[in-house]
Specification:
Blueprint lengths: L10 H12 L6 H27 L6 H10 L9 H10 L1
Helix pairs in contact: 3-4
């Protein structure tokens, strides 16, 4: 059965639940390295899913970029996507 992440729960808690459900251990150095890679993949995927669910996946949406800038506290929201990208990276 595939793991179904609870999007209302903390990502760290959900990763711990995934580890427990799969019985993954971290006793050996190799197991810890493997678990670290799985954690990195899980966190990256979870953040991407949550970001996409909230902001959308359309990178060409000026309104989404402007909303993101406002959420990040950019004082003057730029009128272009390029301006929003620069402003969001410097926030």
């Amino acid at each position: 059965m595939a793991f179904k992440r609870n999007r209302r729960a903390l990502i760290a808690d959900e990763f711990s639940r995934l580890v427990a459900e799969n019985g993954w251990d971290s006793k050996s150095k190799k197991a810890r390295v493997n678990l670290k890679e799985k954690r990195k993949e899980f966190y990256g995927s979870a953040v991407t899913q949550d970001f996409t669910a909230f902001w959308g996946a359309d990178e060409t949406s000026l309104s989404a970029w402007r909303d993101l800038c406002q959420c990040l506290g950019v004082k003057k929201t730029p009128p272009s996507i390029e301006g929003c990208k620069k402003a969001s990276c410097s926030s």
